[in-house]
Amino acid sequence: MLLYLLRHSESEGNRDGKFRGRADFPLTERGIRQSEDAAEFLKDKDISRIYSSPLIRSFNTALAIAMKKNLEVFSDKDFNNIYLGNWEGRLKTEIKEKYPKEWEIWTHSPEYLNIKEMETLDDVQRRSVGKVKEISLEIEGNILIVSHRAVIKPLIAGLLNIQKPYFWRLHIDTAALSILEKMEDDRGWMLKNLNINHYLKSFEEERF
What is the pLDDT of residue 112? Predict the structure, then answer.
């Protein structure tokens, strides 16, 4: 079984330097083109089912691929982005100025960021890994999950048993693809590819 993990295409929140979380930013024009690029790259891949975060930037990325492959998109809350409370929708420069200690944790080891009324990356990892394990028992074919950086990174780390800190050691661009393979005899998962982006005609590398 192959697990295709695609980060959503560029959204207005990415372009404008804002914390996204569950703020429902739409795709930019470049994001729409990136979705088309990803769909073209994946059109001949053997994929049985497509899952997506419920957020529109992810769902519309998945929809572009599904239309090429004549598949349905299954929206699943367990692949929703991390919940960041009152940081969501705000400029990163504003968060850096207003919450300097928390910003320092976010930019160095966000796995240890623990703020009341926000999700932690551990929370995200538990729900996303749990859902993938559930799906892998139900479906024999390959699956595609279209989600977010703050879901895909902890998901990969959880499936591969990568210890903290891992977040900034894994780089994943918008609309970039990573591929894992479930090994036989319950030997876990193997990383085949990380951050495939050569099919994108345009993207902007994003750090924090």
Answer: 98
198 in catalytic set: no
List, for residues 168-201, the tens digit of each pLDDT value: 999 999 999 999 999 988 899 999 999 999 999 9
Q: Where are the domains of the chain?
A: 2-196
Pick the CATH number of 2-196 from 3.40.50.150, 3.30.1160.10, 3.40.50.1010, 3.40.50.1240: 3.40.50.1240
**Of 108, 148, 171, 198, which residue is the catalytic one?**
148
What's the CA gap between 60 and 146, in Å, rounded? 10
Strand 49-52 and strand 143-147: the pairing is parallel
Q: What is the pLDDT of residues 118-157, one digit of tens each?
A: 999 999 999 999 999 999 999 989 999 999 999 999 999 9
Instruction: Decide if 8 is catalytic.
Output: yes
Other beta carbons within 10 angstroms of residue 64's beta carbon come to 22
Report the distance separating Cα 94 and Cα 55, nearest Å: 24
Residue 47 — φ and ψ, nearest 5°?
Answer: -125, 125
